[in-house]
What does this fold into?
Amino acid sequence: MFFRKKKETNDVVRRKIILTRQITNSVITYAKSWHPNEGILILQGKKEKNLVKITGLIIPPFSTHGPYYSGFPVYELPFDLSYIGTIHSHPSGSNNPSLEDLNHFFGLVSLIICYPYDAEDIAAFDRNGNKMDLETG
It folds into this structure.
């Protein structure tokens, strides 16, 4: 028997996240309304190959908010395959994920919007904290 050696590839497949203008504006408004506390939303969307399009936002049931945290009990969510991640705000001014953010990762993508809450203040990350390409409308 002959075994072929797998071809080594260093090409990293990067997902691209797309937010429509309406979704972007809704996220900005939600983050501003919770300031100086963090706000959190569930992202609904569709994944096609390496493209993830966000199509809706859900306010999680029984969510908690504070100046340094936001969260929700995952077991309270109804089963829905369109939930693809979360977006939450950082009132501190940094849109980088904290260790706590990475430990409580939900779905395929985590978006973070930071103060002063504008479209360019949104960043997307994967489960490992690697930055993802993001297109805002």
